[in-house]
Amino acid sequence: MNQVDKLLANINTFIQKAEESAEDITEILPDDIPELQDLPGLVEEFEKLTAKFLRQQRKFYLDAFKAFISKDDELTLETMLNYFQSNLFAADEFVALYGVEAAAFLTLTTKGLAKVIMESIDKDVPFQTLSKKTTDWITSWSDELAEIMQLNTHKAIEFELIEAIQNGESIQQAELRLKELPEFDRKRARATARTEILTASSQANWESFMQSPAVEGKKWKHSGSKKSVPRPTHVAMDGEVVGVDELFLVDGEFGMYPRDTTFSAKNRVNCGCVIGPVVNQDIIRLSPEEKEEIRQQVLVELNEE
Hints:
- The strands form two sheets. Strands 2-1-5 form a three-stranded antiparallel β-sheet.
- By secondary structure, it is mainly alpha-helical.
- The protein contains eleven helices and five strands.
- Helices cover 63% and strands 7% of the residues.
- A hairpin with a 2-residue loop joins strand 3 (248-250) and strand 4.
- The two termini are 35 Å apart.
């Protein structure tokens, strides 16, 4: 299995497991995190955004399918498959369009959540701006997410056309297969939105902890729905404390926070764990000016990376 196939197998597992849960985001998270009330609305908005681009992508392929049929009465599915692989996949603009919109949305989301989180830690040090480290991460991950989703869609289209060929199906039956692909439906948009908004929440926590002078560590808090079987490796992490910019070791994998994009699907999908700040009360008692000076020093370091 090559690297692309491994990537696709991983994301297929990710999406399949994420879609198994229809729970609301508030049902899998603890009720003591400051940003909780904002998350359901953000999930809904990102779901709408994602669904819009999936509909556009579906229309692109179905329109091209129909246009190609009208040009050739003797068209075979083998020719159609080759046309998709050689022409249409390269012309698919999903990555360019969705990547930009996802980055813009996740940037605003992370800013808004960081504001709420920082105010809950220390009102003397309000949120002002995201660090370059976080904005760079949002841009790169949004592009990678769009590429993974597009690769998954292309793989699904290929599979359906090959299946239609092997089953001796008609052009019309093959078209119906494309129309009903789950890769284009709202359920996929919902699964994507839930996970990515929760990931943005985790990044906002990390950013807030880094910028808050009194936070000297982060604590892993296990959480999850009563309807799901908890992962023993995540239960074992409950209460684990590391430095703010240090990695957690979870089931043999390293990540900065729950649902870190460096984790594989087994540790990201439907994870409701969160991180909480470990606060130094001596620093909390410093003057606002002293704490602001410390914050500015940290921002300089984060913006240089």
